[in-house]
Amino acid sequence: MPSRMSLLHSPQGQKMEKPQNSCSSVTDPSSRSPTGILVVSYHAPLGYHAPLGCSGTSPLPPKDIPAGINYVITAFASAKIFNTGSYYTPFKPLSEIRALFDSGAKVCMAIGGWGDDEGFGTGAATDESRKTFAKNVAETVEKLGYDCVDVDWEYPGGNGEDYKVITNDKKTSEIESFPKLLSEIKLAIGEKELSIAVPARKPDLIAYTAEQMPKINAAVDFVNVMAYDIMNRRDNVTIHQSSVVDSKAVVEHYMQLGLDARKLNLGFPFYAKYFETQGECVQPVGCPTVLLESENGIDTHKSGAVTFETVSFSDPGFAKAMQNGILDSERGGQWYWSPESKKFWTWDTPELVTRKFEEIVKPMKLGGVFAWSMGEDSKDWGHIKAMQEGVKGLKDGGHVKAMQEDVKGLKDGGHVKAMQEDVKGLKDGGHVKAMQEDVKGLKDGGHVKAMQEDVKGLKDGGHVKAMQEDVKGLKDGGHVKAMQEDVKGLPDPECL
Known about the structure:
five-stranded antiparallel β-sheet; 14 strands; 16 helices
């Protein structure tokens, strides 16, 4: 059975909540052959993909690290250009990107990203605008040679970067227009895969409702759950940014809304986040923070994100946090609070990556995994390697085989056969025949004939004739004549 794992890389200067050099995502294709490292997917083949950015500021891993990646997602093309048909130029020619990965790896174009929601809102607004947006997307991927499209709208329905400028109540129409836009894009790109990146922070799931989710599920090939940034600058007390418990909860929520688990890809962050607290913080959850965002939505620079790259360790505060991190074994998150800076740090270790495979990906039979982002891992590539081992464990441990057996069991175990036998039994057992006999019995047994005789009896027995005689009697007996005389006796209209 196919499966997937993907890593992304984003451009320098891109406005986003996450670190600015890379990102990652996964797909759920149904017709790919196994190619190595994987994240389990019911449909997709063994392998993982790696999105790249526009400038590639961070070095990509040595070729042996991304071996097996079967999808590469480049981030980001601005959503605005697809409303006007403007030309998009990738930060690297696709031929150079393909050369970094296994032969046959597909390269996908990511649209949007943090702070780029206006273009989506405009494109999704009307039937005409949706068709234009989708047509331009399809023409772009065809012209440039992309194999797939990833829509990263943060977020339909509101809570984007501009939520203080354009309030959520002015974006309610996006809740219904979002799945319509996805459907148009999928229709336009045809057999090329379409994926979306979705939030994990509950307040941001405005457009992901029980009513809309079946439409979204029908339009996309896979869904990348950004199970990170669960704490951001809009919060006022500390929580883990991507704990095992919180990641599992958001996946369960999407499944309850109607998303197919086999389409879901769990996201991992290759960066730590920090938030300044008001006072001492002796536990990872519940410490009050200072004001992290102003009333007009501007970052107060009291919070941020730092990647695991070697250069990041030149910051003594970050280095100390990494060296002295504390495991919250109950919730599954790594944390540290600095008494000097009053910074609360939260991140995933490679060990927590492994735990997420064991407690989320494997038991919930998810379609795959991905990470934000390629190039942001530590110098030993520990997080990527943990993902590789997790995927390998799914394969060796029977996760993929188990899903194949589930399908096979439906056939061999009699599920499909039982249904066929039920239908056959209706015929052989006389169910259908009995119904035919019932109808025949109505005829042969006289039921229909009796009704015909009843009607005939009304005529022959005088019933109809009696009614005709009654009417005739009214005339002959003077009843009608008397009524005419009554009318005649009324005063002339002129007297009224």
